[in-house]
Amino acid sequence: MSREDPDVIDSVEKAFRLLQSFSAERSAMTVSEAAAATGLTRATARRILLTLERLGFAETDGRSFRLTAGVLRLGYGYLAALPFWEHAQPHMRALSDELRESSSMATLDGGEIVYVARVPASRSMTITLNVGSRLPAYPTSMGRVLLAALPEPELRSYLDSTTLERLTPNTITDPDELRAELRRVAEQGFAVVDGEREEGIRSAAAPVRGSTGRVLAALNVSANAGRVSLEELRGRFVPRLLETAEAITKDIAGLH
Amino acid sequence: MSREDPDVIDSVEKAFRLLQSFSAERSAMTVSEAAAATGLTRATARRILLTLERLGFAETDGRSFRLTAGVLRLGYGYLAALPFWEHAQPHMRALSDELRESSSMATLDGGEIVYVARVPASRSMTITLNVGSRLPAYPTSMGRVLLAALPEPELRSYLDSTTLERLTPNTITDPDELRAELRRVAEQGFAVVDGEREEGIRSAAAPVRGSTGRVLAALNVSANAGRVSLEELRGRFVPRLLETAEAITKDIAGLH
């Protein structure tokens, strides 16, 4: 984004930057801490924090500021507008119940996948990925499904601008090899990833399509490699995943 | 919010207003439609939409604008900072599996409850309430639990500023009667609501507490009145709900 662009309202950019600087590790910040976290001046950070407070997005004890549940309103307009939002979860839950593993749905935003729905496995005691959380696209099964559906110019731009980091010994880091894998994903209609983002985690993903055939989102099932072999993932999980993605696609088509 | 307040940055308020004007019904808007929906001038609406686009929160085909998954980032800082966020869902899922009904968690924001987690019942084919969605507090079981935990001045201010609408023939609309019910909720440690927001829906809710005993959120189970009698809700659902709320409270305490 060009700093000189007259269409960009400077204070709006700063307000969003400050809002996004809150996190699990920085759940409450003083004016000074917010200024340090964002690179804004103290005066600007203070003005923005007070603005966020007046708008109901932050609260303060007079010293520290923290976000309120009001910020969830900001994402809700997007989620509510997703055609699959209301219809995917019962199917995902049935899939997760049957396979006893977690199932997620994600869309692509820039070079990252963004979780828009998630059904954790019953047994799961640690949930670290939830709606709104993000991962790089290239080493994940949902990312592969979404990248495989990109028009060529967008895929080229993604590959040109993305460093394929070796996150595990399995990660595909050669752009040509990734391209070949994405072609395979497009042809077979699903992706299988074996510990490329995190060792010991396997997952399979399939596309959910709109009525025109356009890929709207990716649906996945992921499992611990100690519990589920690659053969079981391909032989038992993938067929059920494809059926579920198809059922969601049909439900969505019925809406229009 | 005073229009004259020098601490409120006008353009920030307008940007958030425009962002929140997107919805399921208005998932894509032209500059003119956005101006009409928000009361902003076309020039201002255009500048803000272009700003949102540059920041990755909106995309355009040259005519209409729609939100991107980028907006989910804005709410994620809040959710990630909730101490119960990662720990509640496995417990909620076990509860929902056992009772075969949906379970939700909500916090209070202004006079509304805001869903922060939700596990739909397997059988559910219509999910209309999801993370980030909002309901008035007074006619809901989670709202009653959260209102019952408010300090007296805040409760008084809530009752003074809220019109208790008769949403169904069952809704408590008398402030004194609501106060008495909230005292009962505080004493017994749970709330039961029978079709006060929507006829045919019954629910029970209990508080989830932080390590200091402060109520952080409300946990509920809701069911169709045709499937679950009030006796079953009280006799079978409430004890499991209380156990689950207690288990989540313990898990959170273990973190600190």
Automatic annotation (TrEMBL), chains A, B:
Gene3D superfamilies: 3.30.450.40, Winged helix-like DNA-binding domain superfamily/Winged helix DNA-binding domain (1.10.10.10). The keyword Flavoprotein does not apply. It holds the Pfam family IclR_C. It comes from the Bacteria. Keywords: DNA-binding, Transcription, Transcription regulation. Residues 70-254 form the IclR-ED domain. InterPro entries: GAF-like_dom_sf, HTH_MetabolicPath_Reg, PcaR_PcaU, Tscrpt_reg_IclR_C, Tscrpt_reg_IclR_N, WH-like_DNA-bd_sf, WH_DNA-bd_sf. Residues 9-71 form the HTH iclR-type domain. Coiled coil: none annotated. NCBIfam families: pcaR_pcaU. This is Helix-turn-helix domain-containing protein. It comes from Amycolatopsis acididurans.
